[in-house]
Amino acid sequence: MKNFKPLVGMVKGKIPFDAAVVQKNAATIAANLEKARKLFPEGSEKGEKESRAKPEIWLLEDEFQDIFKTAVQRARALSQVREAKDLAPAVMALGKDGCGACHKKFRLPKK
């Protein structure tokens, strides 16, 4: 979330556009997504920790992994943004096709 804040701030015009910040934060988001992909191996659905992960993660594993792949691709595309006019569409694509798609289908709401 902390890597999204400056990007959203730039999109909303609350923070001046800075391509270096976009590149750094988007690269971190992509790296974190790559790590997160590996947090749900077969058998982890029976973990002892309380989780907001829906059982569909393990029932629809291929779809789950495809969304992660898309999210990583969108984050990498975001890291290539060099002009302010290109930022909002790239952030929206990552949010809609990556993070949002996964959270909507595979994440339980907060209690």
Describe the structure in your own words:
The chain has 111 residues and is mainly alpha-helical. It has one domain (5-40, 53-106): Cytochrome c/b562 (Four Helix Bundle (Hemerythrin (Met), subunit A), Up-down Bundle). It is 64% helix and 0% strand. The protein has five helices and no strands. It has helices spanning 5-11, 19-37, 56-59, 61-78, 84-106. The relative contact order is 0.17. The mean pLDDT is 92.
Radius of gyration: 15 Å
| Shape-level CATH architecture | Up-down Bundle
In CATH, the homologous superfamily goes by the name Cytochrome c/b562
- Class based on secondary structure composition and strand pairing: mainly alpha
Proportion of residues in β-strands: under 5%
Question: Unreliable stretches, pLDDT < 50, 5 or more residues?
Answer: none
Number of domains: 1
N-C termini distance: 19 Å
CATH fold-level label: Four Helix Bundle (Hemerythrin (Met), subunit A)
The helical percent reads 55-70%
Strand/helix succession: HHHHH
Mean pLDDT: 92
User: Any idea of the CATH class?
Assistant: Mainly Alpha
The gross shape turns out to be: elongated
Biggest β-sheet strands, sense, barrel: none
Count helical runs.
5
Beta strand count: 0
What labels would you give this structure?
Four Helix Bundle (Hemerythrin (Met), subunit A); mainly alpha; 111 residues; elongated
Write the layout of secondary structure elements.
Blueprint: H1 5-11, H2 19-37, H3 56-59, H4 61-78, H5 84-106
